[in-house]
Amino acid sequence: MNGDLPVRIIDPTNFQVATSETARDINRRIVLNLIRKHQPISRADLSRRSGLQRSTVSAITEELIALRWVTKGAVGHLPHGRKPTFLHLNGERAGIIGVDLRPLTTTIALAGLDDRFLTQETFATGRDPRQFVAQLGQRLHDLIKSRSDIAYEGVGVALPGRVDSLSQRLVFAPNLGWRDLDLKTPLEQATGLPVELENDANACALATLWNDQFAEGVHDLLAVAVTEGIGVGMVLNGQLVRGPTGIAGEFGHVVMREDGPHCNCGNRGCWEVFASNTAAVRYYSEANSRRPAVASVPPTFEDVLRLAEQEDVKAGQALDRMAHFLGDGIAMLVMGLAPSIVVVFGEVTQAWDRVGPIIQARVEGRSYTPAKVRIVPTNPAAETRLRGTIALVLQKHFGAPRIA
Fold first, then answer.
1. Total number of domains constituting the chain
2. Do 246 and 304 lie in a common domain?
3. Phi, psi of 120 (to 5 degrees)
4. 164 in the same domain as 290
5. C-alpha atoms less than 13 angstroms from C-alpha of 257 in its C-beta half-sphere
6. Domain of 253?
7. Is 2 part of a structural domain of the chain?
């Protein structure tokens, strides 16, 4: 999987022939990505990094400037020759709206082309799907109306469930209790913008690739999103894997113990009932079930993290047990998919000094790969899911066009 040249099989029943415009489109996207990654950058550096002729780079950058994707910045100083003008992405070129929809809360953010969040709000996720989608559409409409000075590019939505790649309908989201739901149509009607839906773990994988965080030059990466459930985003041979119906990566609902607790998907003993935030809260609550009740409000995962930090023994044991099962599941992924790196997302990474060594030990003890796989945590403050929704909208301009 990690060879020098990833192999892509051409489907003779579904392909698009490359034309001269395809080549120009690819070159534009290469230049646009190099500017995004290395800004401020001169045309000469773009030519050197891309391998394109300077005349080609000059023609492309002039086009991008005319379309307001790129702006001119400071003029460089050289002892001889023409002084270079540095180029930047135009952060004000477009507004992108990101929606991170989770079982308990939903966050809406407005970002510029430079990936900087301009506004953000969080509110409770309603249980009735159609009522909530209507409420979400109204909030998005109000946001757009309040910032009418911005030219909007689209809306990206990260969901704790799987989205059909063709119909863009939500197939199922067990921890929301939603199935076969059309979010795209009502949200597009409310906003007048194109809406892109994606599984939250896939959004995390996209954000990691978009920012080259941990993964520059890596072709095989797994994004393990640990929240109320567990999802896995898979980048294999440099491509995000969704499967024919978008279900690929639903490892959180792989049964680990048939006699385990009931899962919201309808099965028993799924990976996420042992290794998610919800599982840690259950472990802590069960350990304290014989204690006199001190409060009517049930604990949250944030409570467990805080108590463990304060050296509460029961909370620490709950996190340890969660980490144990996280490691077992990641070992399964490592054995089956042989990634170069596994990136863990979620609030559990706040306790990585405690849970990280347990996860690493379980993976090393239960997998037999020739190379040690890197397992790295992310900072929840980075808001990776939201950043993934921004990348989801922008990939039509920055991603490689599909030609086969």
1. 3
2. yes
3. -160, 140
4. no
5. 12
6. 216-377
7. no
Asked if residue 40 lies in contact with residue 70, where contact means CB atoms within 8 angstroms, the answer is no
User: Residue 7: inside a domain, yes or no?
Assistant: no
Instruction: Quickly count: other Cβ atoms within 10 Å of residue 300's Cβ.
Output: 13
Q: Give the 3-state secondary structure percentages of the chain, helix then strand then coil, rounded to 5.
A: 40, 20, 35
Cβ(43)–Cβ(64) under 8 Å? no
Quickly count: other Cβ atoms within 10 Å of residue 366's Cβ: 15
Tell me whether residue 317 is in a domain.
yes
pTM: 0.84
Using CA atoms, how far residue 118 sits from 95, 98, 392, in Å, is 9, 11, 18
User: Would you state the structure tokens that stand for residue 281, as one six-digit string?
Assistant: 């809260």
Using H for helix, E for strand and C for coil, what is the string for 195-263? EEEEEHHHHHHHHHHHCCCCCCCCCCEEEEEECCCEEEEEEECCEEECCCCCCCCCHHHCECCCCCCEC
Residue type, 308: A
126-179 residue pLDDT tens: 999 999 999 999 999 999 999 888 889 999 999 999 898 888 899 889 999 999
Residue 61 near residue 84 (C-beta atoms within 8 A): no
Q: Which residues contact 50 (CB under 8 A, 6 or more apart)?
A: 27, 30, 31, 34, 57
What gap in Å lies between CA 298 and CA 363, rounded to an integer? 32
The whole-angstrom separation of Cα 7 and Cα 402 is 15
